[in-house]
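Customer ticket, subject: "Can you confirm the structure for Regulator of telomere elongation helicase 1 homolog?"

Message body: Hello, I'm evaluating your service for our small team and ran a test protein. I'd like someone to confirm that this is what the system normally returns, since I don't have a reference to compare against.
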Amino acid sequence: MPEYTIGSVRVDFPFEAYDCQVEYMRKVVKALEGKSNALLESPTGTGKTLCLLCATLGWLESKKAKEAELDKADEGTSEEARLFLQGRRESRTIVYSSRTHSQLAKVIKELKATSYRPRTCILGSRQQMCIHPTISKMQGNPQNQACRSLVAKQGCKAHNMVTEWMAANKQAATQLLDIEDLVKIGHNGGGCPFYISRELQTDAELVILPYNYLVDPKIRKSMTNLDWARCVLIFDEAHNLERVCTDAASFDLTSVRLSQCMAEVQSAIEYKLQSGANSSEAIHQDVETEIESFRVTKTILSNLEKAIAGHAFPASGEGVTFPGDYIFQLLAKAEITAENYELFLEQLLVVTQALEERDEDKGTGSRRSTYSIPSLSDAIKIVQRSMGKLSEDDPPMFEGYRVHISDGRKESAKFKSAAGTNFKRMPTLSYWCFLPGIAMRELQNLGVESIIVTSGTLAPLASFSHELQLPFKESIENPHVIDPSQVWLGIVPVGPSNVRLNSSYKTRDLRDYKNDLGNAIANFSRVIPDGLLVFFPSFVVMNKCVEAWQSPLSSGGAAGSIWDHITRYKQPIIEPRESKLFAHAAEDFKAKLDDPSYSGAIFFGVCRGKASEGLDFSDKAGRGVIVTGIPFAMKTDPQVRIKKDVLDEDCRKNSRSTEGRTKLTGDQWYRQQASRAVNQALGRVIRHRHDYGAIILLDERFGNASAMADLSKWLRPHARNFQTFGSAAGALTHFFRKRRSVIQVSAEGVGGGARAGAAKEEGGFAALNVPGVGLGNVVGSDDAPRRPAAVGIDVRGLSAFASKLAGSAGKSEKSRPGFGQQLSDMLAMTKKRKLEGRSLAGTSSRVASNKAPPPQNQAKEALKGKAKVTSKANVPAMKVMHLAKNLYSKEDYKKFILTLKSYKEKRITIQEFTRTLKESMSYDQTDLLRALEHFVVTTDVAEYRKLIVEQK
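Agent reply: Thanks for trying us out. I re-ran your input and got the following:
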């Protein structure tokens, strides 16, 4: 493997590194050597994860080698001094975190491609790792409690085998096992995957985990094996880190949840009354005391419910917001104060234990999904922790919080319909953290050596750093490793009918906007091969557009729908709201993409959704990505509104931070959140060095200077702001031709709204305003015919199209004299296949006049594809060849000839022949495919006709 020396660190890399990769690794090593923090942005597809692993593990190996030399040098020192020095040189741990377990599995895969084999463990939850037939079906706290209880009784067979398996597999730590591997081991009798991973953590040099394990204090506290002062923390795919940090430090306590807590306390009281009735007098006295404490707890919860509900709410229904310290006043009304937090938490724990004891007695533990009381305990712990300070010079953490109480009228209506209870309001108490830096500085205060934060979309780095409240000595915004010819980025402000494309709330519900947006997507679906991704600002906008496109364009439905035109070229998949359904949608997309009977697939998703944030759409899975609008968060969302207020208030207090960095305003944050979501979606299209694809921004606002500046740095040089739809479609066609795509759109038309001057773009794109062709008869809200859209040639418009071509000779390199007449003649001749005896008149004579008639002995050979026969019976075939020559590029015409030859020589089946024709021809209409029937042997004609109908 190639070797790079960075400072004093030797780094092994699996292949020759690009300059930007070496620079990235240099920044990582500098941060590690200097025990400082790093904020590193490198586009998706630049090998960021691999660089991060190789640089950190190379540094770790370097440290181990140096310490081994020091240990050797210590041989002459006293035993006491040697042990002291060794203690100071204990091995370090790299804690590598990412957002999801699928991303962590990718880290393991990348690590296997390197020469490094550190002692490694990957951590996950019991939900992912438990293989017990009963406990694995449980969730949350009941699952954790049931597991611990069974383990304590030595009743779990899988757990009992862990020690034996670890003893027999001493090299397991260096085998780079992911969660799937551990679960397989468990199912094969090797022991519990969950506890094996914990055993591997004991002396691991590389610990891989989701990053909420680090920022959530409750989870972090359980990782007792880590010496934080000897740790390096890595946050990969950290573009969502701010939100994860604030979510981990916040809570929402609904009225329903609080009611459930009171009901659970009552259940505990009833259980204790029943169990105490049959006990001895001494035990009965203890039970009475416990029951009385439960009743006090229930009273406290009832008072808290009244305190929350007792607020006056504005008529607007926006709820009420208070400073962070108001939470203490509110809890004090229920007699929950700083003096008795610990006592109250202990009491909630006793109640939970009573409920678990009851379930165990009844044998219903495995059927109990979760309790509400633990979530109340977590909320109190968050309040308790917010009273502290991050340092002596800092204000209390609660100053970065806000208390919000919603009026709960909507929730009340839902609850009433579900339970039949008549509540006027069911308010929710929220205690929201608006300073993500609180969680990050807590990590820093643990004494960790370095924190490395990296992703493909972090820019602008200054504001990201400001939000995390950490000093980042090392930073970088890397370019991409690809060649400029591998990516195409176009900002398209208008649709085929010249309707302005703007997805703001003022225009996104207009019928004209939705129709032209759909027409534009239909056009690009034809131009872009294989997989196409379309991202909307939200699920609401996506669903409204899809619903509009699926509606017939005319009252009678004869014109079909925009959805029909989109799905003519791509099989659609729509991202589901429910997370549990997403995996199926992703598999469905892949299946349609791999199905040879389809010409491609289109995935409709949303910015900030699962598809835009984490899926890998490499190669043909993502040849193009379309973003239909800027995904601004709803300004009416109380969290968004309060966040902006908090930042603006901070700016008013001090225009510059103590480090001299400009403060972040509310509006800047608001815009940057949207742009990061866009950049993350755009990152789906280029996934590795040899990948290529197109990016299309279908919103005129992307052309603004501020929006352009918010694009990822590596994308900005590629951006082109087109003035017409036709010019954009032509340039995109040219891009895919240069990338040797099989998609050809040389004669595709654009809407009449496009300027006449845009009739020809650099790729030979002819903008033809042909009535009756493609989507030319789109019907708008006034039921009047619209200007035609740039979609494929419809059979009904072929004659007009032929005439247009005939009259445009010399205007396009694809148009030749008499071509339109030839096309019309050819289509007329394909109505029947009985060619013999047909009068071909003058048209046939013109085509064959310069050819000598073939010898008679070649007639049979021609049927076998071994010789060309120029006879009256063969003239239609020649016309088709002439047509192909006009329609195809030089490269695709060669492909057509080779395919025909392979079929005639019986090296490919009729199915393969038909599929290749479908993929390589410019027009996928049945009539044109039927024209090529002249080349099909008689025994295959029936199958061929069936296939062209199926593939229409």
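A couple of notes from the result: The chain has a mean pLDDT of 79. The CA atoms of residues 126 and 877 lie 67 Å apart. Feel free to reply with more questions.
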